[in-house]
Each structure stands twice: as structure tokens, then as C-alpha cells.
User: Fold this.
Amino acid sequence: KESEELKDKENIVILPRRNSISLPNLQDFIEVGQDAKYADDENDKSDISSRENPRNVRRKSVLSPKMLTIPGDEESGSTSPANSVTSINSLASLLREKIQSLPQSLRKKKSTEYKTKIFVVLLLIAIIVLIVTAYFLYSQKILAKAYFEKIKFNKLKRHMRIYNNLGNELLFAKLGTTIRYEKVLPCLPTNKRHDGSICLEWMHRARLYLDYYELEGQVKCYNLKWISLSPDVSPTDCFDMANSHWYGGGQTAEFAWPLEKGGHNFQPFITGKVEQNEWGNVLKRYFISSKGAALIVDDETPLYVSIRNSPKKELCFKAQNDDFAFVNRRSDMVQLNYSICTGSNMSKLHSHLSEHSLWDGLKKEDGNIIDSLLTEPVWEITSDKEKLTEETIYNFTDDITNSVGVLKQGHVLINEFWQNHIGDFELDTNRFPTLEKTMEMLKRRGFRVVFTIQPFISTESFNFAEAVKKELVISERFTNRRIPALTRYKTLQSGAVLDITNNRSIPWLVEKLKKVMDKYKFDAYYLDMGTAYTMPYYYECEKPLVNPDSYKTLFINSIQGSVPIFGVSSAIERPKPPVFVVLPQFESSWEGLRRVIPTILTYGILGYPFLIPGAVGGDYDPLDAVFLNNGTTKVLPDQELYIRWLQMAAFLPVVRYHHLPSTYGEQNISDMAKSLAITRQNKVTPKLKKFARVSLNLGLPIIRPLWMLDSEDPQCHVVTDEFSIGDEIIVAPILYSGSRQREIYLPGGVWKDGIDGSLRKGSRWIHDYRVEENEVAYFERMPDDTRF
Assistant:
């Protein structure tokens, strides 16, 4: 018996250890045991290693019924103990079963241990992530320190958020975007201002002063002043334009209304012509958003502005000196100085920030001049020097009187060619031999006459040599004062610019201007000063200018007190009333017509209420010649374009004509002009005068965007082709060729249709509103309790 047990032990085969991940294959165990039994019966001594290695036999991890069946008993289905392997030799079978079951138990034990370890590792990772996240959020909370209650500033990222009293975010800004340094320190005591402001410094790069002040009407303002500490750092701040609408600055090359519809790289914030430059002829360093936040930049900051399109829409300010716009450095290092003001809503904020009490120093006759311009048109005589003669003036005013019965007076604007050469400041007696008598005739007809002057002296003028000798003109930089800096402007091919920063040029000029006015008895001068880019590139004045645009303000203020001024062609500050500001020229096209409304709305909110639009039909380049009845030729705008332009101009502050309505020889145009003149006289002019007084008291524009009627209505912020006279008349002109209908939006309230007299509720769109060629859509505000 012992020998049999020994043989059974010798027949037990120990299999190689399998991969711990795979399940043990029971079929392999059974077949190996059976082979051992057959070898014992037949005295087969062959080695088990001569057969295929069981490790190479891979089966599915799920056991099949065959794996659980005893070999040779597949069909019996017996599962009784008598038929089992243990019934043959219980001890050997028991040992074999124990050995066979050993790998599986070990695997289960190891699997449980692995699962426990994995769980512990995952739990540890989760705890670490939570700790890091909590620390990061806490750090950001600490870094985003609250200043002056409503500001949160992250010093590490230089992100600033401004909130209103309700906790709503009004403005998000990224400050100091050009500072490639994160560590920020409090300023040294010697650099602090001791006025309650906060001072932070990025070592050897930039210093920031943050201050707070309040205005009336619960307007809160925050002043930020960057001082560069390195010539390589140009302080740059960017403001998020997403989820809000922005207005202000000035006319852009894209004619964007609102501003986020445009986009351009950094350009100096100086006046120019949008055909060649980014900004137009009238500017102000003032921007306002629909959320109730406004940006006001200091006049001495060498300001560059951009509207970025990527990675997201941003309005950016940068302080940077250069060789032209900001060549006269105000300090050793550039400074970016501006204020952020916030209010309860956009309209109230704008009203509080507007310049009030424009009546100060205004005489009664000044008010009469404003009323006359709002009541009477401006007639602009030909710009061709050869055709501008005394006879032309006589005939032009005679045609006005005879062709349009209700327009018998107004201002006649004579361009700079009343002189022989620009800068003569004397009448060309060859073309105007008896102008004194002609002026008397114009006075009797009820006209006011305006002469155009410019601060330029042509090299062909007899005044040029005298001005250079007396050092009355701007000199060339890097040379001595006797070499004048020359420029070009319009038809002037070469001329010097009067240096108004000295004490000699203005008295010299005023003496000549008074002499001409006293002799010919005209009413006022129109100052055509060009733009910043009209200045010579290497200009140098006796006293440094902040920038080329500062010249305009000095020139206007110096001249206005000595001779009457009718209007100015460009400005960066509101001239004292009754001076009007003239809009830039627009091309004679439908695109030019569509650009008028965004421009006049922008200038209005910048603080220029008294505006003179361009000529009806546009200021255009000659395209087609039209034969007139007298056999001469003249280029005229498209007839439909002229009609639609005239309809819009009838509701603007001043109607300006370059071509008489009768020039077309069409009776319907003359009849429509008379009808519009009656509408203007009865309905429009009283409102213009009323809101001119409001402008003088509160600084608000006469022509307003719809959001000034209801700044809480989001639809009012995006309407680009409507405007209102004060808050009482809404005008929606046709601006597309061949169109006889349009979409119109009315703000909240009750409005009376100017075409059919029907009453309409506001805060809604009127779709496919019908407007015939001889009609213009306008709506008059009615009392809120008006019953339909």
C-alpha cells in the first residue's frame, strides 16, 4: 500500500506557475493527471516536458462546461461521488484537488489586495487634488484683494473687476499686459503720494497708483496712473468688450456703431481722415459701455488705442511716445493716466459726466446765432477757385431766393479762395472788384456771409517772406528757427503753418482778419484747420505742444475772442458756443449716406451738441456730368440719393446745401424740398431750439441715440440707422437705393406716426414699414397716458 501511495505521489505533476492575471485552466489539470495514470498502467516513463507546455494553451476566462467534465464521461452526465476521481484513490485525489485549488485561492487573495491598494492610491490622489485646488482658490481669493469696496484686483495676474452696488460686474480689465514680471511689491515710502491712493510696483518695470473719488449722482470713479520705470515698457491696459456695447472716442475707419463692430491695431489717438487714418476729424478721450462704466483718459497721456478681435474683443489703451504724434515727452518715462467711472445705468452716468452749464459767458446775441443756424440752411458755394467770382455769389443767392420760396435766407459759406493765395488774408480784387456792394445786396436779401480761413501761408503768398522773417511760423525740427516746416493741405501744395504758441503770430493774424471784416462787413469766419496729420512731420513750435491736436484748441481759443467764429472743421475739445463743429466730408454714395447717422451720434455723445452735417447729396468725386438748361455742365449726385439725403437732413441740426434742389430741373424735387422745409419749420425747428437749451444746461446732445431714451432696452443699443431729436421725435430715414420699406424700432412709450397719424406702442419692432419716395418715417412722442 505504501508503494502504491508512493507511485501516486510520483505521478503527481507540478505545473509551471501561470500568469497571476489569467484564470487557472481546469482542463489542463485534469488532462495532466489522466496522462500520469495511463503512463503508470503502461509503464510509460516519458517526461512530461516532452508534451506541449500548458502555459501556451490560453482559454477564455469564463469556464466552459467541458472544463468541468471528467474525461470519458461527457455523455453520462454523472456527477456522483462514485464516478469522481476521488473514489479511485481518495488520498491521491484529495492531494491533487488541494494542489489544483491552490493557484486560484492565491489569485483571489492577491486580487483583493490589489483592489485595496488601488482604492487607497486613488483616495490619496483625490485628497491631494482637493488640497491643491483649495489652496489655489484660497490663494486667488487672497490675491484678488478688494480695493475701495467695489474693486477686486488680482495682483499676480493683474486682473481687475469693478462691481456696482448690487454686486454685478460692470467691467473686467487686464492691466499692465506688457509687464513680463509677476512679483509685485508695495511702493517705497518715498514713492507713495500720501493722498489715500494705493501704490504698487513691479521692480524696474512699472509703478501703479490706484485712487478713488466720487462725483454727484452716486457716480464712483477710480483713477489709475501707470508710470513706466523702463524704456522697454509701454503701459497697456485692455478692457473686455464682451457682453456689453461700447461707444465714444470718435469716428473710426470702420464707421463702427457700437465700437465692438470694428477692429484695428494700435494707432495714435489723433485726428485724421478715415480714408487714410484710423480716427476722424473730431475726437474725445471718452468711452462708455452699456453696463454703466466709462473710461476717461488724461489729455497729456501719449495715447494709442486698439480694438482687438482675438483672442476676444477688447478695447486697449497704451502709452507710447513716438516721432510725430507724441514727440514732445511730458516726462522722462511714459505715463498712462485715466479714470474709470461707474453709475447706476448708462444714461444717468453719461448725463452726470457731460459738461454742464455751457451758458457760462454766453451773450444773448450768441444764443441768436445758434437759433439762426438751427432755423436757416447753410449754402456752400462752389469749391473751384476759377469759378468763385463775385458774379457767382450774386447768381447763387439769386437762385436760392427764386427757386425755393420758403428758404430765402441762411448762411452763405465762401471757401478759402476769396484770397488769391492761401495766407494772403486779403481779398482778391481781380475776382471780387465790387464785393462791398455785393455784400450790401446779400444783407438786404437776409443772408449772412461767412469767409473761410486756414492757419497756413502758401509759399506763393506775399505774406510768406514776412512770416518767416518774423519767425511767425512753425520751424523744422533739428534746425534753427529760420527754416520753416512746410506742409500740404487740399489744393495747397506747399505752405508754412502759423506758430500760435508764440506771442507774435495771433496779433499779426487778428489784425489782418479784422481789417478784411471791417471793410466788407461779412458776419463770421469758418476755421478750416485740417487734422493732426496736416501738421509737418518734423514740426517744432516755440512752446512744445502736447500733441499735434493741441494746436486746434489753442488756435480756436486765441481767435474766438477777437473775431466771430461760425464753425470749425476739427476739434478735440468742445469749442465755446455759438461755434458749431462740422462733420467730415462724405462721398456721394449710399454708403456715404449710411455713415452720417453713426458719425453724428458719436460726436453728440462726445460732447459736441452743435453740429453741421455734410452737404445734401454728399461731398463727392465727379462721376457723371449733367447738362443744365444754360448749356453748362455740373456733376450732380444720383437723384434718388439726393432725395433720401435731403429727407434725413431735414431733421438734423443744420441743413447744408452744395446743390440747390432746383438744379435737377425736376419739379417733384423742388416741391419735396418745400414740403420738407415746412415740416422742419413747424415740427422740427421748435424741438431743435428746445433741446439746444437743454444742451447748454446739461451738455446732452441734440441728436441722440435710442439708448439715451431707454438704456435698459438692449434693442436700443444696436440700432444704427435711427436717431432721435431730444427724446421727442424719432427719425428712421431710407438709406438704401430703391427701398420702399424698412424695419423700425420704437423705444418704450406711445408714438404718433408722422406719415399716417396712427398711434403705436413702443418697445417693439415695426416690420416692413412702408415708406414711399416722397416720404420720410418719423414718430412723435405722445403722453404715456394717451388712449388708443
